[in-house]
Amino acid sequence: MLEKLEFTFNKFPRTFWVVVGTQFIDVIGNTLLFPFFALYVTQKFGVGMTEAGIILGTNSFAGIIGSTIGGALADRYGRRGIILFGLVVSALSGLTLGFVNHFYLFYGLSAFVGLMGSAAQPAHQAMVADLLPPEKRAEGFGILRVVANFAWIIGPTIGGFLASYNFLYLFLSDAVISTITALLVFRLLPETKPQPKEKTESESLGQTMLGYLQALADRPFLAFVFASILMILVYQQMYSSLSVFLRDVHHITPRFYGLIMSTSAITVVIFQFFVSYFIKRYPPFLMMATATFFYMIGFTMYGFVTTVPLFIVAMIIITIGEMVGMPTSNALAAAFAPEDKRARYMAIFGLTWAVPSMLGPLAAGLVMDNYNPNYVWYIGGILCVVAIMAFLSLHRQLGSREKFQPAKE
């Protein structure tokens, strides 16, 4: 076992492991807070899930703008500076968010947090693609999933404990952890932006922004983004409406919700290496369809089951889909992207998270507040079926292209 771990470690460059380590620390801070955000809003301000969904949607809409700007800046100026900026702003704005006592002021600050905090996301993903050759990217993104989910074991467990005393402790802890991560990135992480193969005239920032037109004109890429949005629209319910659903419908406390989420993280930590090694042998679009199938089963179960053990079983099924789909989707996005526009493609790919974050909580809130809450999970199952069909269609159209072939041993 130790020899296998040593072999895995030596396959990847040192800088990649620095990225892995800093992300691990940062995700602990995020997972202390994010799973309990909807609970915090509904409890502190005495509002329903619809209002909480509007706040989450506002944050995500602002995040689309921030990510678009950040992707262009990362392609023009480099990845490292944008990542540092995102961490510092995350620490300061998140801390401020914890002290806001007026609901409508919370709206504006939430939008600002989304705008500034999302600017670094394309740079993170582009940096991994910079560091790894195509045949190692799925495994590399899989490793990032392992450490992120190892952080999920720690974060929600501590977060549930802190939330039971005072939600403010979540915001304070996240700010401290973001500051520590920024210091580590500053000291240990070099710039990874590829240098042009030929000396070219420097383009203006406006021309850099216009580079998005190539990504927006890439119809196969946009079809992949659309299918992924449908998939993630369902997946993200586990981070927003699921906690409120389990509390209001099944009387599950934050501690038990943290336990359910930690079960998912433990599953990833134990099995992600094996899954990443296994799935790289198969066509990536088929793997995306397979991942969505597991989402369909797992999330639909929440509309039917009523006990904690079955909630955990449903989460494990969802996690199998996560282990297959998350590293594959990142590797596919990198395969679509030209090298000189990698961060901008990753910013467009970021819509697969931003759009569901913007629309999903609000839509789920409207359903939960006005209809049978179980409808959220039934509708999710239908959306998964549509996404599965879209990924299968992409496989038929693009699967024969070399850059979408399974990795060679």
CATH topology (fold) name: Growth Hormone, Chain: A
The total strand number stands at 0
CA distance, first residue to last residue: 21 Å
Unreliable stretches, pLDDT < 50, 5 or more residues? 1-7
Please describe the biggest sheet, giving its number of strands, its sense, and whether it closes into a barrel: none
What is the strand content? under 5%
Envelope shape: globular
Q: Mean pLDDT, nearest integer?
A: 80
Order of helices and strands: HHHHHHHHHHHHHHHHHHH
Classify the helix fraction into a percent range.
Answer: over 70%
The number of domains is 1
Descriptive account of the structure:
- By secondary structure, the protein is mainly alpha-helical.
- It has one domain (13-191, 213-404): MFS general substrate transporter like domains (Growth Hormone, Chain: A, Up-down Bundle), CATH 1.20.1250.
- Helix content is 80%, strand content 0%.
- The chain has 19 helices and no strands.
- Helix 5 (80-97) runs antiparallel to helix 9 and helix 8 (134-163) runs antiparallel to helix 16.
- The radius of gyration is 20 Å and the shape is globular.
Structure at a glance:
With 409 residues, the protein is mainly α. The protein contains 19 helices and no strands.
SSE layout:
Elements: H1 2-11, H2 14-33, H3 37-45, H4 49-77, H5 80-97, H6 103-117, H7 121-131, H8 134-163, H9 168-188, H10 205-210, H11 212-216, H12 219-235, H13 241-250, H14 254-279, H15 284-301, H16 308-336, H17 342-349, H18 351-370, H19 375-398
Helix pairs in contact: 2-8, 2-9, 4-6, 4-7, 4-17, 4-18, 5-6, 5-9, 7-17, 8-14, 8-16, 12-16, 12-18, 12-19, 14-16, 15-16, 15-19, 16-17
